[in-house]
């Protein structure tokens, strides 16, 4: 009898244990529910501790606000890499649940969000360390991107619904400020190029005035967030700092302009291809928009006009002697390398800031809007070009005239960076890690639910890494060999410049007058031919790339920019 009682006690104990229910509860604002897509995204504290669940519990519940959800199948563990099927206990509607490691942003408004002005909205943010709520003003930002179904937004944090007073907010390790951007990344096939490029620039380049302004940054820092707008899941975004006076720590005005900041929004003076007269009543001039001083305080285009005029119209001697008093030399080197490494085709004049720390300091560049790069262009299309050099009128003149022997320093800087942050292993690992994290954590799967404009597949990653490898190989040749300050001799001939923009000069051409020449591309295909009739050979018609000039039995390797 005692044995039977003992057996029944053990059996009852086991049954009670097995029928136990584990109830989880997400904190307010650490979850969002998209009712139309029956989608739940939630953060959960210490998710790694929820293991061996199927052997311990017969029921698993998740409390989200006032609603209870039941797991249809008890998983062995909880993770951000899986999707779970859950049922609302009241409505019996099934939902797909994802746990996320990314910060969550929820924005709700009764107003229509437009380009301008900002309209009132309620904002909530949650990550591992903070939950933040605020009133904000929100507007759509961007140019062509405004036509995309997934919008980029400019956020200003308000103390009240009218926005009369603003408040500074900090996220993670980013700065404290009242003005933020959530960048949609819609035209980026892997949603990682802008992130990677922004991080790379901050690693490559530091402001040259850090001794005076230790908090200054060379560009905007970013991190990923997931966004809900009016209860609808909007996908992954970059939460981004602004490029502004505060980010760059430009000097404030004291009865006269000291710090300056101009945003390149189109072609013109911004690419040093035009120099129209300016109007100080207009905040736009020839491709630039004034950002600091603020347009409602003072607009004065004189300084940037004179700089542009110098670049375009100074004599060669004046340019060589004075350009590094007017533009920061180290910034030129790093930006020229960065621009061409990522091949950001829009960032030679558009999507670029021209800034000045203070009155007597030179101008410098700050990149912006870096989604069209690493083998894609502004609309997200792949452009598999790796053998060209991006410049504008200013960059081209520097390369052609080589003031203060800067091409040697560019080459040396490239070689040094290629041993460190610009190795293929470092760059490819950074891209691959981002891709694998986004994929394994189901970010691509969630993104495809709302914006299936790309496949987010392995083929896109392979394309990107192959493009990067080919780009680095070409730039190694360009920076280490073709970007040379030495004149190249073809037998007893002197041929320059290299790289060439419009023509190859042959000062002592009389030795080969009347002789035929041929130009071949790197595939050995004939790209041009003619007869030597003057002291130069025009290369205007060639596409950018590496070529070989052949005159009789002699050859000369050059780059067409």
UniProtKB/TrEMBL annotation:
Annotated keywords: Kinase, Signal, Transferase
Domain of life: Bacteria
Pfam families: CotH, Por_Secre_tail
Signal peptide coordinates: 1-26
All residue ranges annotated as the Secretion system C-terminal sorting domain in the record: 495-557
UniProt key word Signal: yes
KW Signal (keyword) present: yes
MF term (GO), any: kinase activity
NCBIfam families associated with the record: Por_Secre_tail (TIGR04183)
Official protein name in the record: CotH kinase family protein
Species, as recorded: Formosa undariae
């Amino acid at each position: 009898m005692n044995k039977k009682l003992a057996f029944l006690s053990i059996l009852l104990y086991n049954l009670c244990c097995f029928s136990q229910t584990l109830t989880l509860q997400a904190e307010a604002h650490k979850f969002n529910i998209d009712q139309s897509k029956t989608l739940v995204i939630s953060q959960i504290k210490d998710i790694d501790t929820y293991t061996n669940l199927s052997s311990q519990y017969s029921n698993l519940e998740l409390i989200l606000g006032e609603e209870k959800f039941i797991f249809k199948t008890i998983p062995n563990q909880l993770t951000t890499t899986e999707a779970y099927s859950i049922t609302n206990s009241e409505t019996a509607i099934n939902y797909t649940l994802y746990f996320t490691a990314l910060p969550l942003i929820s924005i709700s408004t009764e107003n229509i969000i437009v380009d301008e002005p900002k309209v009132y909205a309620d904002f909530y943010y949650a990550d591992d360390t903070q939950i933040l709520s605020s009133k904000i003003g929100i507007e759509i930002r961007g140019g062509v991107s405004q036509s995309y179904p997934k919008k980029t937004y400019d956020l200003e944090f308000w103390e009240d619904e009218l926005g009369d007073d603003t408040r500074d907010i900090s996220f993670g390790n980013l700065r404290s400020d009242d003005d933020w951007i959530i960048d949609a990344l819609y035209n980026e096939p892997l949603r990682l190029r802008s992130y990677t490029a922004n991080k790379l620039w901050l690693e490559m380049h530091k402001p040259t005035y850090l001794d005076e302004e230790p908090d200054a940054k060379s560009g905007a820092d970013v991190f990923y967030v997931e966004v809900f707008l009016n209860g609808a899941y909007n996908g992954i975004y970059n939460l981004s700092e602004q490029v502004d006076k505060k980010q760059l720590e430009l000097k404030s005005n004291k009865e006269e302009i000291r710090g300056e900041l101009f945003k390149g929004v189109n072609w013109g003076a911004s690419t040093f291809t035009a120099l129209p007269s300016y109007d100080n009543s207009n905040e736009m001039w020839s491709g630039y928009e004034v950002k600091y001083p603020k347009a409602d305080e003072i607009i004065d285009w004189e300084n940037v006009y004179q700089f542009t005029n110098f670049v375009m119209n100074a004599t060669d001697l004046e340019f060589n002697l004075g350009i590094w008093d007017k533009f920061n030399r180290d910034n030129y080197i790093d930006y020229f390398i960065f621009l061409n490494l990522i091949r950001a085709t829009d960032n030679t004049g558009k999507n670029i800031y021209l800034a000045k720390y203070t009155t007597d300091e030179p101008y410098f560049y700050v990149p912006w809007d870096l989604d069209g790069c690493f083998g894609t262009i502004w609309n997200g299309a792949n452009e598999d070009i790796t053998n060209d050099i991006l410049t504008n009128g200013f960059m081209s003149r520097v390369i052609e005239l080589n003031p203060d022997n800067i091409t040697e320093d560019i080459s040396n800087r490239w070689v040094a960076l290629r041993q460190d942050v610009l190795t293929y292993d470092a760059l490819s690992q950074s891209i691959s890690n981002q891709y694998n994290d986004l994929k394994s954590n189901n970010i691509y799967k969630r993104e495809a639910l709302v914006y299936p404009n790309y496949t987010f597949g392995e083929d896109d990653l392979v394309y990107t890494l192959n493009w990067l490898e080919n780009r680095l190989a070409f730039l190694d040749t360009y920076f280490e060999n073709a970007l040379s300050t030495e004149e190249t001799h073809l037998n007893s001939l002197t041929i320059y410049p290299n790289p060439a923009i419009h023509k190859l000069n042959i000062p002592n051409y009389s030795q080969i007058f009347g002789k035929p020449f041929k130009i071949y591309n790197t595939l050995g295909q004939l790209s041009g031919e003619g007869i030597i009739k003057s002291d130069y050979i025009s290369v205007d018609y060639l596409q950018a790339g590496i070529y070989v000039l052949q005159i009789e039995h002699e050859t000369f390797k050059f780059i067409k920019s």
